[in-house]
Amino acid sequence: MASSNSVKDLVPLTGSDARIPRIGYGVYRSNNCKAAVLDALSVGYRHIDTAQFYRNETDVGEAIRSSGIPREDLYIVTKIQHPVGNSVEKTLESIRESVRRIDSGEGDRKGYVDLFLVHTPASGRVGREILWRALELLKEEGGTIDIGVSNYGTEHLFQMETYTSITPVCNQIEVHPFCQQKEVIDLCKSKGIVITAYAPIVRNRRSDDPVLVAIGQNHGRHPTQVMIKWSLQKGYIPLPKSDNPDRMKANMDMDGWELSEEEMTQIEQLDEGQDGAICPYPLNCA
Ligand SMILES: NC(=O)c1ccc[n+]([C@@H]2O[C@H](COP(=O)([O-])OP(=O)(O)OC[C@H]3O[C@@H](n4cnc5c(N)ncnc54)[C@H](OP(=O)(O)O)[C@@H]3O)[C@@H](O)[C@H]2O)c1
After folding, report:
1. Which residue is catalytic, options 54, 75, 152, 198?
2. Relative to the CA of 201, which ligand 1 atom is closest?
3. Cα 259 to ligand 1 centroid, rounded to whole Å
4. Is 84 within the bounds of a domain?
5. CB neighbours of 286 closer than 8 A, spacing ≥ 6?
6. Residue 218, in any domain of the structure
């Protein structure tokens, strides 16, 4: 079993000097994103996960500026879905705009994000290469510290070897007890690619699962907390989302308790493969 990890830990990224906070706060479908990010920062989150698709990069930018937290203490991730006009230059301009929305810089300091991801492999082989080339150029010019992918299956990762020498630092995929993604995670581990786990609490749809309820009772915890703890103990970086400050706190309250090896094994048995997935992104699309 992976060792227990504090949510305050910073995890090293292969091939990078940067380190990523052990837990992140996701803002997909955030009701009032600026206020939610400020609440999340005040309860201790330092890693925020947004995307062009969420249409709230500006809110994230406003929240981080008004939080008063030094930029270097924050870890901000965003994503692009599709290339613009099948052009690397136009795609690069689109991702520069994301950076400007999030962090326009201050004085001599140029704005940047910590991690820019290709949101989905759905643009096809040529589209994926355009997106990656634009991200590489953004990294070269300092607009992002690192680059990575999301929803990439094994074939997409193998295919990257044909068009780039830069390994993504992270693959952000749906991972939780009901969709454990063993094949792609094994490949990512072998390449030193960190897994960030989206929908880590299955949008609260499986919190009545009797195994999770029983394990939660052993620890005086809610089943959603058991799912986040499982993710941390597996060595993933979970990205729970909540608009509710009490839930935000509960989702961070992971230190000082641990799932036993037997409980981890019980949770391993909940895997339903792709049938357990809630997001429509195919990790095996062409
Ligand atoms: N890369 C991708 O393609 C992709 C896809 C999906 C998501 N993501 C990222 O991953 C993040 C998380 O995923 P997600 O938002 O889809 O799902 P999630 O984090 O598994 O679940 C969020 C849902 O659970 C509820 N919730 C949160 N904490 C709870 C608690 N302690 N007890 C009970 N219910 C709780 C929230 O409601 P309240 O807000 O009312 O608390 C919300 O409805 C996203 O925000 C996004 O940043 C990425």
Report:
1. 54
2. 20
3. 22
4. yes
5. 124, 125
6. yes
Is residue 54 annotated as part of the catalytic site, yes or no?
yes
> What is each CA distance from 127 to 88, 106, 133, 233, 264, in whole angstroms?
10, 33, 10, 35, 39
Residue 86 has a CB neighbour count (10 Å cut-off) of 12
Q: How far apart are CA 114 and CA 16, in angstroms?
A: 11
Could you give the number of structural domains in the chain? Answer: 1
Q: Give the structural domain span for 96.
A: 10-271
pLDDT tens sequence for the chain (286 residues): 444 568 999 999 999 999 999 999 999 999 999 999 999 999 999 999 999 999 999 999 999 999 999 999 999 999 999 999 999 999 999 999 999 999 999 999 999 999 999 999 999 999 999 999 999 999 999 999 999 999 999 999 999 999 999 999 999 999 999 999 999 999 999 999 999 999 999 999 999 999 999 999 999 999 999 999 999 999 999 999 999 999 999 999 999 999 999 999 999 999 999 999 998 766 778 8
- What are the pocket residues of ligand 1 if the criterion is a CB atom closer than 6 Å to any ligand atom? 26-28, 49, 119, 150-151, 172, 198-204, 222, 224, 239-244, 247, 250-251, 279, 281
